[in-house]
Amino acid sequence: MSTPAPPKIRALRHVALRTTALEESVAFYSGPWGLEVQERTDDAAYLRAAGPEHHVLQLHAADRNALDHLAFALPTPEEVDAAAAWAAAEGATILEPPGRIDRPGAGYGFRILDPENRVLEISAYVHAVAERPQDVPVPRKVAHCVLNTTDIDALTAWYTRVLGLRVSDWSEHQMVFLRAVGDHHVIAFNQAEWAAPNHVAYEVANLDAWLRSIGRLKVAGHETAWGPGRHGPGDNAFAYYVDPAGLVPEMTAEVMQIDEDTWMPRVWPRIPELSDLFRTAGPPSPHIREHMGGVPDPGWA
Ligand SMILES: [Fe+2]
User: Fold this and answer.
1) Which tens digits make up the pLDDT trace of 42-54?
2) What is the pLDDT of residue 3?
3) Ligand 1 midpoint to CA 200 (Å)
4) Ligand 1 centroid to 171 CA: how many Å?
5) Ramachandran region, residue 177 (left: φ > 0; alpha: ψ -120 to 50; beta: rest)
6) Suppose 184 and one of 22, 82, 164, 234 were both cysteines; which one would form an S-S bond, judging by CB atoms 3.0 to 4.6 Å apart?
7) Burial of 36 (0-12, 13-18, 19+ CB in 10 A)
8) 176 and 287 in one domain?
9) What is the pLDDT of residue 113?
């Protein structure tokens, strides 16, 4: 038996949100946003992107906006079992022990709670879907999820220890970006007054596909709520919107790729020339800040 070690999470698979406007949101994300409904129930929708992941976004009807759960990817059931054992040894609350997942997408996984009561699913062997043509400028995967937290240091310590994620950069002591493999970040935390989902980012193939996506949304009547611009930390192009329920999605491209052997995290001062490398976006408005702040999310109950 190998020595216990933190899991090596490979990717963020999907983000599940609770939404106060299910039908309107399904129409928005499967319409101008560029996702496609993979499975539907009366009170939930599972939407895929162009890539092979079964779904990248779940929407669940609810009476308040919230995060339902985040799903992270491991390659094998053996690594899932080892990750569950590691999390238990680190004191994490196990909601579901490792086993077959009896939900759309299936696979083999387990669920735990983070220190702010968020549900995290770690899985392997999820059902594949056929990739959509890459010449269509639509999202190919979920890029990252940013979460508001009341204790950025405690949460960073927990996610690095229990999930094995690594810090890529800080934005002063306000935001921290954590990576799995490759992409600069799969999740980020934002110090705030209450826990809530801040935004979910979807990646398109390149800057051309990104601008065409902004154009498709504009033609459909959806203006950016912040952007277009380009972030300093992560170097990714950004365009933020407000969805029909008031949740915030981001269209992004060209996320920085990290070389594990040479990367050294930096602390980015929050000044205009580092917050938007394009200098096209300007500072976020009170309107988008309010939506990114969201409403207090008590998490799993
Ligand atoms: Fe983002």
Assistant:
1) 999 999 999 999 9
2) 75
3) 7
4) 12
5) beta
6) 234
7) middle
8) yes
9) 98
Ligand 1 centroid to residue 146 C-alpha, Å: 6
Q: Confirm if 71 and 28 have CB atoms less than 8 A apart.
A: no
Distance between CA atoms of residues 69 and 23, nearest Å: 20
Judge if 148 and 120 occupy the same domain: no
Q: What is the pLDDT of residues 154-189, one digit of tens each?
A: 999 999 999 999 999 999 999 999 999 999 999 999
* Mean pLDDT of all residues belonging to the chain: 97
CB 57 within 8 A of CB 138: no
Which residues have C-beta within 8 Å of that of residue 82, sequence separation ≥ 6? 2, 4, 5, 7
Shared-domain flag, residues 151 and 282: yes
- Name residue, tokens 């801040």: 198
Residue-number span of the structural domain to which 153 is assigned: 141-293
User: CA 67, CA 198: separation in Å to the nearest integer?
Assistant: 10
Does a structural domain hold residue 209?
A: yes
Fill in the DSSP letter of residue 297. Answer: -
Is 151 part of a structural domain of the chain? yes
